[in-house]
Design a protein that fits this description.
single chain, five-stranded parallel β-sheet, alpha/beta, about 220 residues, 5 strands
Length: about 220
């Protein structure tokens, strides 16, 4: 049985990984499921952590691209034959399934899997066999993780976001969208193009153009 760290690259999983190493907890493998839609700073951060700990971080990538799924057609259900477009805002979405779960689950199955979920996020904790939550065991909150990283001279480059993940995720908050619009204009334009090409828009009853205009003066 292997001890596998499921590393997202976010502040919580980063704090968990570094603290686990400090405590000399067993780690056989560190795996990062690359959605291919992470912010540029995330890839830089992962490289930095890998160099800092002097341990390899295995990067997993989906077999098909997001565009293959986005522009591809549904193969079942009432939308069969229609273009998929953006995933539904319900969890989990098809891209989480294809770029994360389908890659991580076979590797972690039958092994001990460490996940970086803080104690103040109880809704994200799933009591499954083999799942371990060190941050919960240590009673560490999200703020504790931030404080720990800062004490080590590490400030996550995406600290301005409440949650990190795919830059085009329709489940992200309006606050995150505002940061995307203001700080990542090239990605914002790409997002608007995807919205234009999506048969179901970006998210229900929500228009990126209207959102953009609400911040125009």
């Amino acid at each position: 049985m292997k001890h596998i760290v499921s590393f997202s690259g976010g502040k919580d999983s980063s704090a968990m990984l570094l603290r686990m190493i400090e405590l000399k907890m067993p780690i056989d493998e560190i795996v990062f499921a690359d959605t291919t839609l992470e912010f540029p700073e995330m890839y830089e951060w992962i490289n930095k952590i890998e160099e800092l700990i002097n341990m390899k971080i295995t990067r997993l990538k989906p077999l098909k691209s997001f565009n293959d799924w986005f522009y591809g057609k549904c193969i079942r259900g009432k939308s069969k034959g229609n273009q998929r477009g953006f995933p539904l805002t319900a969890f989990p979405c098809y891209w989480s399934r294809e770029s994360k779960f389908k890659l991580l689950d076979p590797i972690c199955k039958g092994n001990i899997r460490y996940l970086g979920i803080a104690v103040d996020e109880p809704k994200r904790i799933h009591l499954k066999e083999g799942y371990k939550y060190p941050l919960v065991d240590w009673n560490w909150t999200e703020q504790d993780c931030i404080n720990y990283l800062e004490k080590r001279g590490l400030k996550h480059p995406l600290f301005k976001f409440k949650r990190t993940g795919c830059w085009l995720c329709p489940k992200q908050s309006k606050g995150s969208l505002k940061i995307l619009m203001e700080d990542y204009p090239e990605l914002w334009e790409k997002l608007k193009k995807y919205e234009e090409d999506s048969p179901n828009g970006f998210k229900p009853n929500f228009s990126l153009e209207e959102f953009e205009n609400s911040y125009s003066f």
